[in-house]
Write a structure and sequence with these properties.
With about 160 residues, the protein is an alpha+beta fold. The protein has 3 helices and 4 strands, in the order ββαββαα. A 4-stranded antiparallel sheet has the order 1-2-4-3, with helices on one face. It is globular. About 30% of the residues are buried.
């Protein structure tokens, strides 16, 4: 990968063969023209190119996390899935460290496990309301939380 040209998209410059999922890493920091800062975090659930989340789980994690996290932090800008279905991007306003985000993410996920239904999983509030699974979301979140102590380790030893 060292011979490859530098790409404009940060994650395209990450050697996905060297990471060890699950993890949370600072993927980008941008200072906006008026001095505001945005930080983007890679919240990786599965090992790239070895495993992926099923789409119903991705969709349900997205809805559940997006709803629950906003009760814990006013700095959340967005939480969205990666197209490769291995994780999500959490975009925050302001300066945040990976350790702070681990705390926020794990607290949010504990709230998600207590949900009795996926938020807004219906045709009025969602573009594909039938494409959800509370059970799959819980299983993938539990697997992520089972390795909570490893979340700051991004690269393989």
């Amino acid at each position: 990968m060292t011979d490859a040209p530098r790409m404009k998209v940060e994650s395209f410059n990450l050697d996905h063969t060297l990471v060890t999922a699950p993890y949370i890493r600072l993927a980008d920091r941008k200072e906006l023209p008026h001095g505001d800062v945005i930080t983007k975090f890679d919240v990786r659930f599965t090992q790239p190119n070895e495993a992926h989340l099923e789409m119903q789980s991705v969709h349900s994690i997205e809805h559940s996390f997006a709803e629950c996290v906003r009760g814990l932090s006013g700095d959340v800008v967005d939480f969205g899935p990666m197209g490769c279905q291995t994780g999500f991007y959490l975009i925050m306003s302001g300066e945040h460290t990976p350790a702070e985000i681990v705390s926020l993410v794990t607290s949010t996920m504990r709230e998600m496990l207590a949900l009795e239904a996926v938020p807004a999983a219906n045709e009025v509030q969602c573009g594909w309301g039938a494409n959800h699974s509370l059970e799959a979301m819980r299983a993938d979140v539990e697997a992520f939380l089972a390795r909570e102590d490893e979340l700051l380790t991004v690269m393989k030893p």
